[in-house]
Amino acid sequence: MFSHGTGPTVPRHRRNPRRAYDEEGREVTPATIANVQENGARGIIARCVCGHEALLPFTGMHPDWYVPDIALRLRCAACGGKRIETVPDWSDGWRSGRWGLET
Ligand SMILES: [Zn+2]
Question: Does the reported pTM lie above 0.85?
Fold first, then answer.
């Protein structure tokens, strides 16, 4: 999927690490909680640089929040760090066998 950005071109050193940019350097509006829920996401996966990963349910999340910005509200339960990335969980765990032996 290709997204076109909006607004002015952002120089590389001023870019937000939680945003995507198109090839012109314009910021691409991130998906919101409402967007990814409509598209079938089961929750939000939070991944820390230390390797700790957690699946967060949508409970308590505002539909207007940008998915990558949820990371700003989190602190890693394993290392206490805040270098966390949040992405939608598109897996259909139970049916795809994610919790079983199939991969
Ligand atoms: Zn961590």
Answer: no
